[in-house]
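Q: What would this chain look like folded?
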Amino acid sequence: MYKNTVAMIGIRGVSMILTLISAPIMLHHVDRADYGVLLTLTSIVGWVGYMDVGLGNGLRNKLPEFLAKGDFHSAKKIVSSCYVTLAIYVALIIVIFLMVSPFVDWLGVLNSPTSDAGEIRGLTNVVFIAFCIQFLFGLINSILFAYQMPAFQSLFTFVGQFVALIALVIQVYVFDVTSVLQIGAVNSIIPPLVLFWGSIGLFRTKLKEIAPSFKLFEFKSVGSILSLGLKFFVLQMITIVLFQANSIIIARVVSPEAVVEYNLAFKYVSLLTMIFTIVITPVWSATTDAYVRKDFEWINKTLSFSRKVCIASIFIGVLMVLASKFVYGMWLGRGSIDINYSTTGLILLYISFEMLYKVYGTIINGTGKVFAQIILTGIIAIIYIPLAIFLGNLCGLSGVLIANTIVFALNYVWSKLQCNKLINQTATGIWNK
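A: My prediction, written as C-alpha cells:
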C-alpha cells in the first residue's frame, strides 16, 4: 500500500497539472455556454460508470479472497465472468440509448437554447458511447485495486490526460478548431483506448494468471459477486445523486455559464484532495484483507493516519481560498472569468466534509458492512435534490453548494459512528450488516 502511495503522488501530481493546463485552453477557444454544456454532459454521461450493477466493487471485494488463498483458477473464472457479463450489459445500454436519443430534446435537457442542436446531439451520442466502452475496460481498475496496485490506475489516467491535452493543443493551435463536438469527441475517445491497450499489456504480464477467457464464463461466478455487488450498486446509484448531480442542477437552476464557474473552482480546490485521495485509495482493499484476519490494530493505525492527512488537507485548503483570486488570474488569465470567494470557500467546506466522510466510509466499504450506508445515504440523497433546487433558486450557485455541505456533514456523522463500532467490535443490528 505504501509503495503504491509513493508512486501515485508523482503520477497524480503531474495529472493535476495537465488538468489545470487544459482548462484555460478550453475557456478561451470554445464558446463558454458550449463549454458549460460539455461539462454538464460529461457529468451526466459519467453516471454510466456507476451503473455496473455492482460488478466492479463486488469483484474488488471478492477477488482478494481468492488471491489470499492462491486460488488463481477461481480468480480467473470470476474475472472472465465479469468481463463477459459487462460486455453484454454495455452493448444493451448503447443500443437502447441510440434508439431513445433522437427523441430527446438535448438542448432543453442541458438548458442551452443558443447551441447548435445537431452538434449537441452528435456530441451526446459520441460521449455516451465512449463512456460506455470506457466503463467496460475500466473493470481493470477494480482488479488493480484488488491486487493493491492502484498506481497503475493512476498511470492510465495520466496517459489519457496527456494524450488528450496533446490532441487539444493540436486541434486548437494547429487547426484552429472551436467546435465543441470535435473537441469533446476526441477527448472522450482517448481514455477508453488507453484502458484497452493498458489492459492487454497487464493481462499479458503482471496479471497473466487471471487473464479473462470466454471459456471460463459461468453464471454461478457472477452470482457470487452480485450477492455483495448489488449492495454496492445501490450505493453507486446514491453516489450519482450526491457526487454527480451538481452540474445538472446548476445548469438547470442557475445557468450553463455557472457550471463553468463551479467546475473551474472545483478543479482548483480539488488540488488539495490529491494527497488525501492517494492515501485513501488503497485502504479499501487493504482493509478487506485486515478485517478478514481480525487485524483491528492495523485498521486503527490506518484510520488515524488518514484523519491526519485529511485535517492537513483542510488547513491547506483554507490558504488556497485566501489566495484564490490571485491564482485564478494567473491560471485562467486576468479578467477572463470572475469566480467569487464564496464559491471557492463553499466548495472547500463541502469537500472537507466529503473527505472526512471518506476517511470512515472507505473502512466501512472494506469490511462489506454497507447496509446502514445504503439506508442512511439513501435518505440523505432523497433530501439533497429538493434541498439543492430550493436553495439554488433562493441563493443561486451558493445555494447548491450549501446543500452539498449539509448532506456531506450528515454523512460524516453517521460514518464515524459506524466505523468506530466496527473497529471496537461493538457493532450490532443495522451497523453490522
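The chain has a mean pLDDT of 82.
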